[in-house]
Design brief:
33 strands; single chain; globular; mainly beta; five-stranded mixed sheet; 22-stranded antiparallel beta barrel; 59% strand; Maltoporin, Chain A
Length: 592
């Protein structure tokens, strides 16, 4: 499959919705706080941002967050099997541990591996997801090389529940209850599954590999001393089977924050949060347990300077520790101070940021970013952004003893560093549709790899990633559509090879129609290009078609259904792994 097909797929999505006539108009830009750590409309931000809100989550009926993320421009999802399988998320071609993941403001990647258990987070407890593409280390510090994904947990309005059943004995149930100041959401999934591996996989066993998951989120807020005190907590427990054994991942996070009232030129907020995860794995050969913890705190202030200018500054710190039974243990702290200045004058926007981090293990790191935008008319906007970022080595890379003297960690590792640039163009030809174009390039140095005669962790590799993203959004009355094209060239600068598991080309289009009575029907079409995988394997491209619909039954009840992989496409998501075939899921929901 080549780029001509990809372009044709996107063009079909654009034409199918652009020919619809409606008097209703584009209903405005969503607000994001993740891009600059202060609320701003996505159309005003000088970063490429997008939002997956609760309405989109419910309409998609996605079984997990990954089904939603894979439809976003610049994001690639690599999953080894079905739900619950270990998964990597790549942003703009960078490594999976180059994505900073936050839940309600808390860093949630495991300190041992730098990875986040995406597969363990149920969409039923999610209110919205904010996606910020490109480096944001100048505001957040380590890890934000490819971008930032922040997940906000749900506080329901009133009482509600949902139950459903689908192929592979997929049973799901969720419930929630909330008031103005408190909310609780719970979710359960039991998935008997299919054989995650095929005959090309390691230690292949044709039995079904299941997944069990339980999730909970709760939170609240109160007026206090002229400001607002809020708190959130979230816990997940997931158990997944694989051909060599079973893994049990438990993680939780919590955060409390006080935000001052909007009075005078200054506003400030202070917070404290924690995250803990534990992974237990049992196989026929050995058992293992890894536990990591992170305690973080921060204070942030902002001041309106007049003339459409805003000054932000903050200090945050975290201490993380962990151990792997009979293997390694470690701890470290990081303190970071940052400041940012942003504003607008006539048709020009600008933003600058600077941050200094002090890490207990490798010393200091300074990052910065600079961006500017110009609006020649109400319909057009151009912007440019440049930035630096870094990622500190994780505990496995620092302290792991390896296996038989091989693949050992290295306490003398340096952080990975990155420099990037981006050019953007926004065009709003009518009040019903919008086009966003981004061109980006990123160079990453001192990439950590296990190399040399003993395959020890060392700073050896360099990467260069170039790419382009084109997104078209359409909103006219009852019709809604989004189409995205992504092209990227992720290259290892030392070997000239493509970086693994990241396609050069991908395209997605979604089309939804909402009926007057509150029902809806939707279509998803996604194309993923060829990918290089481990061992020199070249994975074939594939196209997936999914359908979803919902219909109100009265008195708060609604029947919902989703068909995944409508054409029953047989493909390998990763070398040696299977993907689910055509599957139907039906659910009944109620809300008071």
């Amino acid at each position: 499959m080549n780029f001509r097909y990809l372009t044709g797929l996107a063009a079909a999505g654009l034409i199918s919705v652009s020919t619809i006539v409606s008097a209703d108009s584009w209903d405005g830009e969503p607000i994001v706080v993740t891009a600059s750590r202060s609320p701003a409309a996505t159309g005003d931000s000088l970063t490429r941002s997008s939002v997956i809100d609760r309405d989109a989550i419910e309409a998609s009926q996605a079984g997990d967050l990954l089904e939603l993320l894979r439809l976003e421009a610049g994001i690639d999802v690599a999953r080894g099997g079905g739900p619950g399988s270990q998964t990597a998320v790549f942003m703009r071609g960078s490594n999976s541990n180059h994505v900073l993941v936050l839940i309600d403001g808390v860093r949630v990647s495991a300190a041992g591996t730098g990875a986040f258990a995406w597969e363990n987070l149920d969409p039923a407890i999610i209110e919205r997801v904010e996606i910020v593409r490109g480096p944001r280390a100048a505001r957040y510090g380590s890890d934000a090389i490819g971008g930032v994904i922040q997940i906000f947990t749900r506080r329901p309005d009133g009482a509600q529940f949902r139950v459903g059943y689908g192929r592979y004995d997929d049973r799901r149930a969720s419930a929630g209850w909330g008031t103005r100041n408190f909310g609780l959401s719970v979710a359960m999934r039991r998935f008997d599954g299919f054989s995650a591996q095929n005959e090309n996989g390691f230690a292949f066993d044709p039995d079904d590999d299941g997944f069990d998951n339980d999730s909970l989120a709760l939170g609240g807020e109160l007026g206090l001393a002229g400001g607002t005190w809020s708190w959130n907590a979230r816990a997940s427990d997931g158990q997944v089977e694989f051909d060599q054994g079973v893994s049990d991942m438990r993680n939780y996070s919590a955060r409390t924050e006080y935000r001052s009232a909007l009075s005078g030129p200054w506003q400030w907020q202070a917070s404290i949060g924690l995250h803990r995860d534990r992974l237990e794995t049992e196989t026929a050969f050995s058992d293992s347990e890894t536990v990591t913890r992170r305690l973080q705190t921060g204070i942030q202030a902002e001041r309106a300077l007049g003339n459409n200018q805003l000054w932000l500054l903050g200090v945050d710190a975290w201490r993380e520790s962990g151990y792997s039974a009979d293997s390694w243990s470690g701890d470290r702290y990081n303190i970071g101070a940052w400041t940012g200045l942003e504003g607008r004058h006539n048709s020009f926007d600008w933003e600058m940021s600077l941050r200094v981090d002090e890490d207990e293990l490798f010393g200091s790191a300074t990052t910065g970013s600079l961006a500017g935008g110009w609006r020649p008319s109400e319909d057009w906007r151009l912007f440019a952004r440049f930035g630096r970022a870094f990622r500190a080595p994780n505990f496995n890379q620092l302290y792991s003893p390896g296996f038989g003297g091989l693949f050992a960690g290295n306490p003398d590792l340096d952080p990975e560093t990155a420099q990037s640039g981006e050019l953007g163009l926004d065009w709003t030809p009518t009040d019903r549709q919008q086009f966003d174009l981004s061109l980006f390039e990123q160079r990453i140095d001192d990439l950590i790899d296990f190399s040399g005669p003993d395959f020890q962790a060392i700073n050896i590799n360099r990467a260069r990633i170039r790419g382009a993203e084109l997104v078209h959004r359409f909103n006219a009355g009852q019709w809604h559509s989004q189409t995205s094209l992504t092209w990227q060239d992720p290259e290892n600068r030392d070997s000239g090879d493509r970086l693994l598991r990241r396609p050069e080309e991908k395209a997605h289009t979604t089309l939804d129609y909402r009926f007057d009575n509150g029902g809806w029907a939707g279509l998803e079409v996604s194309y993923t290009g060829e990918r290089a995988d481990v061992g020199g394997v070249e994975l074939e491209d594939f196209t997936l078609v999914n359908l979803r619909a919902g219909w109100p039954l009265g008195t708060g009840f609604r029947i919902e259904g989703r068909i995944d992989n409508l054409t029953d496409r047989d493909y390998e998501p990763l070398a040696g792994f299977n993907a689910p075939g055509r599957s139907l899921f039906v659910a009944l929901s109620w809300q008071d």
